[in-house]
Design a protein that fits this description.
Blueprint lengths: L2 E5 L2 E4 L4 E8 L2 E12 L6 E6 L5 E3 L7 E6 L4 E6 L8 E11 L5 E4 L3 E6 L1
Parallel strand pairs: 2-11
Antiparallel strand pairs: 1-3, 3-8, 4-5, 4-9, 5-6, 7-8, 9-10, 9-11
């Protein structure tokens, strides 16, 4: 069974930095796109950043220039480096990956979510 395990959230002051990690575990044949989404209280879940298997990236306008997504394909891990954090970045951050497990269909998986809180 495949699962995504996240780590790295926490409480930080405005202007600070955090690094999120997400590792895909299980019997995995291949991983395509990996990404990070976030959901603030009372708001819809939104895409933060996406990275393809080839390393192409896409960012929400609100985080461009501050956040950097990267991945280590050998470790089945995606990272989100968050710099110059703002209070409006406060949300639960979810890892997302398009995974083809052995002996199963390709499908989208979600992590359990990690809380990021930025104080002013």
């Amino acid at each position: 069974q495949v699962q995504l395990v996240e780590s790295g959230g926490g409480l930080v002051q405005a202007g600070g930095s955090l690094r999120l990690s997400c590792t895909a575990l299980g019997n995995i044949f291949s991983i395509n796109d990996m990404g990070w989404y976030r959901q603030a209280p009372g708001k819809q879940r939104e895409l933060v950043a996406l990275i393809t298997n080839g390393g192409g990236t896409n960012y929400a306008d609100s985080v461009k220039g501050r956040f950097t997504i990267s991945r280590n394909n050998a470790k089945n891990t995606v990272y989100l480096q968050m710099n110059s954090l703002k209070p409006e970045d406060t949300a639960v951050y979810y890892c997302n990956a398009d995974i083809h497990p052995y002996n199963n269909y390709r499908q989208t998986y979600w992590g359990q979510g990690t809380q990021v809180t930025v104080s002013s």
